[in-house]
Amino acid sequence: MITFMNNSDSEEEPCNERTSLMSAESPPVPSYQDGLQASEAGEVQAHRKRRTGSSRSPNNIADGNMSDSGVPVRESTSENEEEELTLKYGAKHVIMLFVPVTLCMIVVVATIKSVRFYTEKNGQLIYTPFSEDTPSVGQRLLNSVLNTIIMISVIVVMTVFLVLLYKYRCYKFIHGWLILSSLMLLFLFTYIYLGEVLKTYNVAMDYPTLFLVIWNFGAVGMICIHWKGPLQLQQAYLIMISALMALVFIKYLPEWSAWVILGAISIYDLMAVLCPKGPLRMLVETAQERNEPIFPALIYSSAMMWTVGMAKPDTAARGPSQQTWDAAEDGRENHRSPSHADPQMSETRSPVPTRPITSFEELEEEERGVKLGLGDFIFYSVLVGKAAATASGDWNTTLACFVAILIGLCLTLLLLAVFKKALPALPISITFGLVFYFSTDNLVRPFMDTLASHQLYI
Amino acid sequence: AFFWLVSLLLASLIWFISVHLSDREDAKLQYGLLVFGAAVSVLLQEAFRFAYFKLLKKADEGLATISEDGRSPISLRQMAYVSGLSFGIISGVFSVINILADSIGPGIVGIHGDSPYYFITSAFLTMALVLLHTFWGVIFFDACEKRRYWCLGLVVASHLLTSGLTFLNPWYEASLVPIFIITLCMGLWAFFTAGGSFRNILKCLSCKQEDDSRVMMYSALQVPFED
């Protein structure tokens, strides 16, 4: 299995995307133009998600930049309502993100528990060359740290490369890279996964049927992710490819390296998104300046775009409930595409509250969605999957990690609503997850086991 | 659920430390430490329930101030129910999921002389525990709200009693029956605390269309409809 993992960079692609939760508020940039819906996206969010204390002046600047709104006055008066809306939508967003994250984790845990293939050690990625089969603990620790350093540096290099590509507008290259990654995910990994599942349940399937199934799955997936498709199907595909990617990581990362990598990646995420010269932050700002939508296949979005009573004719043509990601064709993507990070294996992480179509003249009914980068999904699932695979306390540890990650996500979204700028979604959740994993495995498990053996309840 | 997990973590930490500091060979001591650990865990759970109550109160105030009509979109009773339910679910799941997982595999229950009713009694006990946590949540929040501290004490005492009764396993008559009686009493108490009454039950059973009934939505942050 190691052979195909060389220069195609299939595995670390995903690692390159950093997770960042994008807030609604965009930095005040003079490039917002009248009539451009994309600008509205930023502004609307700036409006709608405004909270009184946190970002007054930027909001005002953003209001000033608001082209066609003419509603700065309205905004100030209905601020209370907006805050309420913010909270309402905030809570809804949390739920909208809980469901896909949970689904992804369920798929990963179910596979880990049933298909033996993903817990067998069959070699390692070339990005983690040091083996962990060493006699002493110190050596093993050293090896895992070295593995982590190599992995993280690969990720950093890829991210910087992507930022450069994006800065110099090499869109075709990025598109090609994206398409290649998702091709590999959708076809090759699905084939392997299906093969292993069939083996586990001892189901015979002939090659023509297999070919038909995989071909259909993959082709529909490519279309859904990169072009148009029903929103739910696209979401389902994104969840599936995140799960597949996470399974690959779980299989090929050695134990200690996996935990150290998880920790290191959340630190890296924190730095990359928050530091002024961080690659992800630069990506985010560049994307915001250009008002471009993010590339498909990198972001999970739960937005449904439909508006009632459009004021803008072009948006009326959109039609209801199509999560359309064709920025290229449309040019009027209203989403903010903060983190263009890596279009790698859908690794981007930049949850951004999107404001698909907004018109300020009338009250539109639209569902604002939240976006979460797929890299987040992948690493959350890696954590939970590793907990399921390696913890001897089995289900308790898995559940504890699951709850911890969800609470971390909740807190991160709360912070997003407060700070309204790009935030990394990994650190809090992964920290909670790691803390809960190690403490549950070592402390709670013996306690609960002893209690259960005496049938005591607490 | 998170709060319950944290309380469990702390309790296990205490138990773990106490076990490591003590003599491993002494079975009676270990059993005593287990009892101690369980008691500490119960107390910590209630403490964290209180902490959660405080947190929700704060959030409630915040929601009320920013909402349009000055009322929070979710009532404290709903929060009490949800909090109790989630404590119950996570507690129940933690107690029973490993048993469930083991029950799939091949094996014979009680082959070493233990009770062969282990699984079914575990199931019943878990159910009782989940219900109890829900009821305790409702009563607890209400007691904190109205500052009836004797109610609080009763809740904690009944939790301790329930946990203590499980120590009588496998003498199931002595443990299961009282626990179910406690569950029933707590259920009735919670029902009346939450504002129920015989009239409500009759109204509900007769399926009359009430004009002035409030529709309480459970989704977060929805203003309840009112006439």
UniProtKB/TrEMBL annotation, chain A:
Keyword terms, alphabetized: Endoplasmic reticulum, Golgi apparatus, Hydrolase, Membrane, Notch signaling pathway, Protease, Transmembrane, Transmembrane helix
Region (Disordered): 1-79, 314-358
GO BP term, example: calcium ion homeostasis
Pfam families: Presenilin
UniProt keyword Membrane, yes or no: yes
Biased composition (Polar residues): 54-68
CC per GO annotation: endoplasmic reticulum membrane; gamma-secretase complex; Golgi membrane
Cellular compartments annotated: Endoplasmic reticulum membrane; Golgi apparatus membrane
Molecular function via GO: aspartic endopeptidase activity, intramembrane cleaving
Membrane topology annotation: Multi-pass membrane protein
UniProt xrefs under InterPro entries: Pept_A22A_PS2, Peptidase_A22A, Preselin/SPP, Presenilin_C
TM segment ranges: 94-112, 145-166, 173-195, 207-227, 234-250, 256-275, 399-419, 425-444
Enzyme Commission no: 3.4.23.-
Keyword check for Transmembrane helix: yes
Complex formation: Homodimer.
Role: Probable subunit of the gamma-secretase complex, an endoprotease complex that catalyzes the intramembrane cleavage of integral membrane proteins such as Notch receptors. Probable catalytic subunit of the gamma-secretase complex, an endoprotease complex that catalyzes the intramembrane cleavage of integral membrane proteins such as Notch receptors and APP (amyloid-beta precursor protein). Requires the other members of the gamma-secretase complex to have a protease activity. May play a role in intracellular signaling and gene expression or in linking chromatin to the nuclear membrane. May function in the cytoplasmic partitioning of proteins.
Record family assignment: Belongs to the peptidase A22A family.
Database matches in PANTHER family: PRESENILIN (PTHR10202), PRESENILIN-2 (PTHR10202:SF24)
Domain notes: The PAL motif is required for normal active site conformation.
Name of this protein: Presenilin
Organism phylogeny: Eukaryota, Metazoa, Chordata, Craniata, Vertebrata
From TrEMBL, chain B:
GO process terms (BP): Notch signaling pathway; protein processing
Segments passing through the bilayer: 31-48, 79-97, 117-141, 148-168, 174-192
Subcellular localization(s) per the UniProt record: Membrane
Membrane topology: Multi-pass membrane protein
Keywords (A to Z) from UniProt: Membrane, Notch signaling pathway, Signal, Transmembrane, Transmembrane helix
GO cellular component: gamma-secretase complex
Extent of the signal sequence: 1-22
A Pfam family per the record: Aph-1
Key word Transport present: no
Tagged with keyword Signal: yes
Quaternary structure note: Component of the gamma-secretase complex.
Similarity remark: Belongs to the APH-1 family.
Function field: Potential subunit of the gamma-secretase complex, an endoprotease complex that catalyzes the intramembrane cleavage of integral proteins such as Notch receptors.
The protein's name: Gamma-secretase subunit APH-1
Gene this protein is translated from: Aph1a_0
